[in-house]
Amino acid sequence: LKLQFLYFIGKRTTMSEGSLISLASATSAASGGLLSCLMLYPLEMLKALMSMGDGKTVQQALEEVGGVQGLYKGVQYKCSQVVVAKFIYFYTYTTMQNRHKNLYSRAFTTSENLLAGYLGDIAVVPVALPIECVVTATQKAAKQKNGDKITLRDTLQKIHATKGVVGFYSGLRWQLVVSMLSAIQQTIFDQIRSVIIKGRTALSPREALLLGALARLIALTFVYPFMKLKTVVQAAEQSDNSASLLTTIQRNPLALYNGFAPEAVRGVLSSALLYLVKEQLHEVVMRAFQQVKR
Q: 224: which residues sit within 8 A by CB, 6+ positions away?
């Protein structure tokens, strides 16, 4: 019965080869994102806690959430956000890449790559930003409750009570800048990949791992201060605290890099794992979709 169902779906579909490539890219990227999120969420939590504080140490951050187990609070929401974001981003980006190649018979230039990467990340914002606000609120509540149970309902009510519906889009102005992270990262990855792949269909695991890590580190160095500002805005009790943020920046500009080390470790490992899984899984997923289509 299952085979008959798949055969029926495959016969009825009008999905093009380009759409299959986009779907395979998005699915493999979402799978890689999920794996990296499950493995590295404690570092994400630690980075967020240190970003919210004034130069707190790792030990102080751990004490505030009730130990190592407290670093897993909100992991289900974060992983949901990552899966949705990676799927939408890579589907959008790969679709633009395929259509550009069909129209102009060439790959993206560097500037075109940056634009496509940026637009792909902007497409994620309407869905992923509310989830991220819930994640940030959960991390902040974990810090305040020191190990007590935090429910999704409590988190949603807290956001709505303090900021209203707009609270689910806190940090939007900074997100429009932070979206450059994905654009820069993807551009670096694709430009170097096109040079070293040499006619192969995929990078080796080692190449994907190292290139993903390098691309993330370079992009993060430029964009992290805006990520810091976005996290602070999302954690703030008022809807708009731009004045206090500007005062903080003027007093100590280097404060914008508080928490950079754990984010660099987490981000580099996350991107390395994502591209590793994506490169190795893409062809497998593509063949599976092609079998269903037949």
A: 256, 257, 260, 263, 264
